[in-house]
Automatic annotation (TrEMBL):
GO terms for molecular function: cis-regulatory region sequence-specific DNA binding; identical protein binding; phosphorelay response regulator activity. GO terms for biological process: positive regulation of DNA-templated transcription. PANTHER family: REGULATOR OF RPOS, TRANSCRIPTIONAL REGULATORY PROTEIN BAER. This is Response regulator transcription factor. Residues 126-223 form the OmpR/PhoB-type domain. It is found in: Cytoplasm. Residues 126-223 bind DNA. SUPFAM superfamilies: C-terminal effector domain of the bipartite response regulators, CheY-like. Keywords: Cytoplasm, DNA-binding, Phosphoprotein, Transcription, Transcription regulation, Two-component regulatory system. The lineage of its organism: Bacteria, Pseudomonadati, Pseudomonadota, Alphaproteobacteria, Acetobacterales.
Amino acid sequence: MPKVLVVDDDPHIRSVLRFALERDGFAVAEAGDGAAALAAVADQAPDILLLDVTMPEIDGTEVCRRLRRTSDLPVIFLSSRDEEVDRILGLELGGDDYVTKPFSPREVVARVRAVLRRRAAPAPQAPVVARGELRLLPDSHQAFWGEAEITLTVTEFALLRCLAAHPGRVFTRDALMDVAYPDRRVVSDRTIDSHIRHIRAKFAALGAEPIGTVHGLGYRFSA
């Protein structure tokens, strides 16, 4: 069964989420702070992380930032901050979803299932996408630019795969939202902008700019 690591400094929230997740068939591990969360990721190998943003010492955004250096572990942020800028920051740091408090435990479980569905391996022997210096290996969820491997979240990989599979074609934000969120939840089009900005930053670190903006329309990939 999939294992969920619940990270929150409020033991009541951890208890509520544990009950809801275990009732739905998940295994659950807990951590009460950022340092414990990083240790638990290494020791317990969870399949997904429910991560509180506001914690003392090492907060949730810093935990995610450190994880993204070496891992594409799915992360759903939990936060009492409901401003759009906070949600965008969480996504730019590599979060896969963002849930605001107070929340329905059933909704959180549904979000966990949705993210894990997006993470699930694609059909066997999914074709490699090769465009210029870019190679995407869907079966192993690996991305390479030349010889350099790029760590992408599940959502980032899906967006890049869509764009690279159709070089030169312009995809609107609405079309990319269908790719990023097949469960068709309502998200701001700025969410897609945030994901694209994060992907671009990873390529920029390698001196590459394969994703272009077509103003007023959307984005396209150029090999």
